[in-house]
Request: fold
Amino acid sequence: MSEQQSIEAFLELPGARAGVASPDGERVAFYHEQGQNRELCVLDVATGEYERLAGGESGPQMGGHLAWRGDGEAVLCHARRGPDQTDDIYAVGLDGGVRPVVTRDGRCLLTDVSADSRQLLFLHEREGENTLCRHDSRTGETVQLVTQGNVQGAKMSPDGERVAYTTTGETGGRGVESADVRVVNRRGENPVELPLERTGVGIRGWTEGRLLVDSRGVDQPSCGVIRLGGDGTGDATLCIESERWVGSDTHREHPIQFLGTDRVLAERVTERATLVPVVHSLTGGATVLSVDDGVADFAGEGYGATLADGSLLVGYRSPDTTAGLYRYDPVAGESQPLFEPDSGAFGSDPFVDAEHVAIESGDGSVGGILYRRSETGEPSPVVVRVSGSPRRTTLQRFDPSTQYLLRRGYSVLWVNQRGATRYLRSGQESLRGEFGSGDQRDIAAVADWLAGRDWVDESRLGITGRHYGGYCAYMQLLRDDTRFAAGVAWAGLGNLVALHRNEATDRRVRDELEQLLKGDKGTWRERSPVEHLERLRTPLAVVHAVEDSNIPVEQSRQMRTALRETGFEEGDEFEYHELAESETASRTAVGYQILGDFLDRRL
Reply:
């Protein structure tokens, strides 16, 4: 197929996402995605057949996680409306009828639904803060339960009389590592802060007087079960009867939901950057479920993972397999496809698998996911890629843009530098004070490692990334000892001080900078790429979408101006592309073309 046809084929690859089981476990709601087209579908577990309910090119723009109404007759989802792309909450009936449930200015993010389907909890995000609201679908009344602070998540008690939520305080500036758990009654009155043994606790579920919580602490089990006592009104009589923590002391885990009365289902990130299901017994012991290398995950928080026969609903994808849905029998250790992966126009032409590599970097080890192109008899150019968040682990999952680069003749290595190694819980803290320093030494060590492989063309190493990854591309090209011959920065962080001051910057980005750089503005300036452009010796492409909702386009515009003022010629020594598209521009046809064409010319 032609180059353009190849790009279109990658963009149109189908997949299934956000699958959640109905309350009776006999149906599964999920998004069927193909390119920019996303449809809400419901699958019959017994027959394997599914039907489209809503969405698509002619329907509302749907997204976010899904939840079933308690009676199983409708699916709750998020949809966007208006030029400002406001998120509202909609109910989609099994007959395909779509009706708005909650519509407000700003973003409305559903967090829980009562067992009788009458009450909905949602976070209302507006002007940089999350407030917690309860909506009565019968009367249409919406009540603010928490009017100040920054709420991170919330769950209702099974009887609907109490609400537990996580907050980072009235200013929201403390970060999730120091979040508190509080409980109010259904009217938002008499808040009680639970005196837990740990801070940084998130709410995952509430069943029969027990809270399922997630701890972000270091070197401690992360799945917590909190048994509550009291009179049920949310006042000062509420107490903790017991607090039990299960899970790994070293690996990061996310609790998903209770399984019966004595087990907890969780996800674990492994040393190989895979995601595996784990079942913890509250009486001791754990079972790691057997799945192939890849990402086996669950879409719901506190619900939606169990089918009628007791098997688990698992979403799965691997480096060479697109996203599908599976029924997993934890007793037999076997899985069956419910929605099979589809390679689209590529048919039986296989995608390239990956391997996990460990690379020494001074005081530690760097993880990487390596994709090697097909053998040609010649050394391979390699593109190093960095995630968009400094503490996000790149997992062994399917990535169409990586497969696109492989077909163009490049090998690809995704880096998990310090801070991104979330499978090692202590690794998450290793970036504090080292942002823009230790992490950059890690990426440089990866380049050195690649240069020492006999199958690599060390003169043709490139680097690219989005947001934080774009920052790393800048920083690597500005190193005096850089091995990279070219780089592409997508909406990269160029001026950390200006980024933090800009109110258009996503609040979470500003908070993370404060946590990682400890508020030292001198360090912020010293670790800003815009301050060191005189060191640039290799070709650079700066790309930014005007509508990027996380990093304002002013960051790239400042870099462009500073490059010109430093004496670099645009079009020759650096390239600038400003796109009138959303922040997903790096995953559109234009984005693929910019990346591929630049690398072909510059590497």
Notes: The chain is about 15% helix and 40% strand. Residues 422-426 have pLDDT under 50 and may be disordered.
